[in-house]
Structure formats: C-alpha cells, structure tokens
C-alpha cells in the first residue's frame, strides 16, 4: 500500500501544483495550512487531520481514501473527488466511512484491513496545529536523507559548538567525572543546592532584584523551562508578545500551552532592536506577558539600556510579566556589556533564563536555569503552578547540575573566543564581510551569540518561498541553513547562518553561496 506522502506527491505532480500553490489555496479558503505543514505531509513526517485532508482531496481532485493510501477509490485519481459522508453525530475529525457502514465498529488489524472496514487512524493532537520548529524541520529531514545516501552536508543550521571543535573546559569535565558517583539519584526538584547557590550568586552579580535560592530552578536546558513556565501560566486565548524574528521554541510553546503568540517586529534598520510602537500597538486586554530574547537569536542583536527601559515602561503601564531569554549573555563582543532587563524592573515580575550550553560549549549536557525576580507577591498562584510542574518532572539532569558551580566560578574560557584574535570574534568578522560582498545579500553585524541573519534581495532572485530557497541551496551546494520563516519572520527574504565553523570552512561555504546566487532565480 502506497503511503499518504507518496500519493500526495503523485497528485500534486499530476495537477502541476507546488507546495506554495497548496498553501495559497489554503489561505484563499480560510484553511490553516502553512508551508511547514505541507512540507511535513510531503516528506511523510506526518499526516493531516480530517478537515485538512478534505481540503487537500478537494484541491487535488482525488478521493480522500485513495489519498490516505487505501486501495479504495481509483488509484489513477478520479477527475472529481468522491465525497464520503461524515459519521452522523460523531466528531468532525472522526474516521470517515461509507454511509452503509456508519455504525460499524472501528476494527484494527496489525497488518491489514478487514473486508469493508477501514483501519482506524490516530491523528496528532489539534494542539500541535500551530506548533512548528523548522530549525529541525523538513529541510533538515532532507539533509539527513542526503547524508544517508553518502553525501556530505555542511550544517550551518544549529548552534551546536561541539562538531566545530569547541571543547568543554577541562576543569568542567574533570569535576563532573569526580562527582558522577554522587549524582546517581534524584536531586531536589528545583536542583542541587550547590548549583542553585551558584546561579543565585550569578543573578546577584547581574543585579536581579529580590532573588533567593528558592527562586532558582534548574532544567534540562532552557528549552524545558520555557515550556514549563508557559504551561504554568497560560489559559486558552491568553496572548504573549513574542519577537519576530524569534527563537521558534517561544512561539511553539505559547501556542502549545493554549495561548496565542502575537509577534512584534524587530527592526533591521535599527540594529534589529524591538519596534516599541509596534509592540505597543499589539497589546490587548488578553496580553499577559512580553518575551524578550537578549542577546537575540537569530539576529545576534544586543539591546542597550535605553531600549530595555522602554520595554520596562510598557510592561509597567500594562501590568505585564517579562520573560527574558538570556542564554547568550556571556557571548557579547566589541567590549559591550549585557544588561538583564530584570535588573531594571524591581516592581515587576520577571522570569530570566540562562544556562551553560553556549557559554561553556556543553550543549549536550543539557543544563539551564530560570530565575524568578522582582515583585513575586503578584505571582504567588503562578509560582505554585511552576512548582507543581517542576515536581512532576522529578528533577533535571543531576550530573550536569554538579558542574554549575565550577562553570560559573573561576576562569571563563569563553572570554578568549570573543575578543580580537579569538575564534568567535574573527569568524564573525569574516562572515559579516563575506556576506555583504555577495551581490543581492546584506547583513547587520551581530554584537553577540554566534548567528547572523542576512537579507536576500527577493526581487533580484525572484524568491517567493524561503523554504524552497533553503532546499535549492541544500541540493545544489550541500549547505544546510535555516530559512527566515523558521524564526517566524514574515517575509521570504532572510535566512540564518551559524558561524561556528572555522574561517576556512566559512570561506568555502560563502564561495559556494556566491556561486549559487550568481545564477539563482526561483
């Protein structure tokens, strides 16, 4: 039996339709279907819910059951779809059967369908309809397929330091090895005392107000804590202001928790700083919080105190919480200093996130933390929710917790990377100049982290679909990047490059990109 993905591709080819054509048809019909959704269907990563399946069958003029890969329906695709009535009185997304069998039980078999009874299918939750994470999405799946066939792919899509020769400090590895036998059991739900004490002292050095050891929570990376903190807060319909572009986990977790991510624009013409007027215009009576990513991923922007003060003033005026993602706060270049927004808002309730994955090049260890600060009296009930979810997950990775004290104290090896002559600094200088020398490409110089977010001249290259651009670059030059839309950017004119590889590798990549763009037209 052919798969849904195979028959979907067959039907699209027969109708001469591209993925973008399906997305546009969906928009015209009021159907929620994005480019990443259709890519996941085409790649076989997932199958659609019943209402989306009906739309696809209608658009492609095929039978729904045939599209699902069943033998029912003509495999040569009928000119007009065969409509199958809904189950009377059933859920809108319930399995659909011929009317003569509407009351038949949904019998399943390990390897085949019983005569006249369709096999029951299990669909993903509707809560995932607006949850996307293209940093590890369809283009990455295609890169994996290419690698499995023996091709080499240069991965510039994920900020993972280890594959590019960045090593964990020796002292950290040594201290973890010495403590392994003491970290075999669970820790307290919030984390080891030694780790939380070190994080508390670090928060105090960053001038976060009203922070005690009970306000520190360790997590399996910041990602787990973002999900946890939003799940504890949001009710259906609550709105959270999230930057565009953003680290897409923020948008995904807001939506997964039942909230609505409302994107405020970061202005490329102003060093990628948040557009405060746009932020203000999007506050409603359902808005509960503002998300700040500083330093920013994917742009590498670092926000000055004047910008942070405007955001604090806005949050104060509308009584909003502030979530501040500061995982790159120790990767700041050009002699600049990172300021935690919580340090400027003692009267507000703030949740600040950081960790060791990037600053200590130990992304695989999965150790991050969040700090509650400011006016905690207005968030007592919310904190109870956080504590409940923290207890439910038992605790975070205990061996990784054991090295927090070592990592935050003593010599900070990352400082050697971010000054002139250091790897990150010199690689940033190279990629910034190289990208801006390519006709049709411009980029704002990042001040922090290890990403750059260049802009493409869409008129010059006739680009209407940034995912297609990423796929074309992957197929032609074996270079994997992440499209701008993967960061909830609204136009198909940007992409992110991770500049962790050494300069000779970046040089080869930018030469290939230059050659690719010299004749590329979408």
Structure report:
This protein has helices at residues 4-14, 19-29, 35-43, 50-60, 64-67, 138-148, 170-179, 193-205, 221-233, 248-256, 276-281, 305-318, 380-392, 398-401, 404-408, 423-436, 458-461, 466-477, 503-518, and strands at residues 154-155, 216-219, 239-244, 260-267, 273-274, 287-293, 321-325, 349-355, 368-374, 441-442, 451-452, 455-456, 479-480, 482-483, 495-498. 43% of the residues are buried. Helices cover 36% and strands 12% of the residues. The chain has 19 helices and 15 strands. The longest helix has 16 residues, at 503-518. The strands form 4 sheets. It has an 8-stranded mixed beta sheet with strand order 2-9-8-7-6-3-4-5. The protein is globular. It is an alpha/beta fold and 522 residues long.
Summarize this structure briefly.
The protein is built from 19 helices and 15 strands.
For the biggest sheet, the summary is:
8 strands, mixed
Q: Classify the helix fraction into a percent range.
A: 25-40%
- What is the rounded distance between the termini? 35 Å
Strand content: 5-15%
What gyration radius follows from the Cα positions, in whole Å? Answer: 25 Å
SS-based class: alpha/beta
Overall pLDDT confidence? 88
Q: Strand tally, please?
A: 15
Query: What are the low-pLDDT stretches, counting only 5+ consecutive residues below 50?
Result: 78-111
How many distinct helices?
Answer: 19
Largest beta sheet: what is the strand line-up? Answer: 2-9-8-7-6-3-4-5
Global morphology? globular
